User: Which sequence fits this backbone?
């Protein structure tokens, strides 16, 4: 059975590109979305060269074209770009699952928790895209450094939140396909806590001089 096509909007960035590699290696065809089609195509060629034989295809398109062609959309952009990017993909997102990786960080104090008026970047995205879009927030607490390395075994879990049961089932499958354990962290309102953990982890990294601290939930059978 063929696997759903995923558009990774912001797939040229560190975390987005790492997820592209992992999903393509797991057999999911991936479209990289960027404001520049040329930049997206260059990234697709670079990432394709990292993939083992038998992986799915990776192609580059504009944000709007990638979102329109895909079954599932993943938003992996800086928070400052969320509103602009949401406008570019809004029409193509209707009725689809959108997984957001966005974290609202407010420079210069990115290790201090800050929340937008909607409560979280994920809830704000729901307002920006509309009610027919099924939003799931995930991958906020994952360091990007090792994602492209398919030999790397993650020690951290992925907390995911959302209000649609079916969408969360699909999101968990993609979390597992990327090599992580997914932990259902409740409704989308809880995304504010998960997003806030990223600021905590940034501070922990700095204070303990480590590159990639993460979150792992104890007490769950694995």
Assistant:
């Amino acid at each position: 059975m063929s696997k759903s096509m995923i558009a990774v909007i912001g797939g040229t960035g560190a975390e987005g590109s790492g997820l592209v590699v992992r999903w393509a290696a797991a057999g999911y065809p991936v479209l990289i979305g960027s404001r520049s089609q040329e930049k997206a195509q260059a990234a697709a060629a670079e990432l394709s060269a990292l993939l083992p034989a038998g992986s799915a295809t990776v192609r580059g398109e504009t944000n709007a074209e990638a979102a329109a062609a895909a079954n599932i959309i993943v938003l992996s952009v800086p928070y400052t770009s969320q509103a602009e990017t949401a406008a570019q993909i809004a029409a193509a997102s209707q009725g689809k699952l959108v997984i957001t990786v966005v974290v609202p960080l407010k420079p210069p104090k990115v290790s201090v928790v800050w929340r937008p008026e909607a409560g979280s970047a994920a809830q704000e995205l729901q307002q920006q895209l509309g009610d027919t879009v099924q939003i799931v927030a995930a991958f906020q607490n994952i360091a990007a450094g090792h994602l492209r390395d398919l030999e790397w075994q993650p020690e951290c879990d992925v907390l995911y939140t959302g209000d649609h049961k079916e969408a969360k089932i699909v999101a968990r499958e993609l979390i597992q396909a990327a090599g992580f354990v997914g932990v259902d962290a409740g409704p989308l309102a809880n995304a504010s806590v998960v997003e806030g953990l990223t600021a905590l982890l940034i501070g922990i990294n700095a204070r303990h001089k480590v590159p990639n601290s993460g979150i792992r939930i104890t007490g769950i059978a694995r």
Summary: The chain has one domain: 6-208. The longest strand covers residues 157-162.
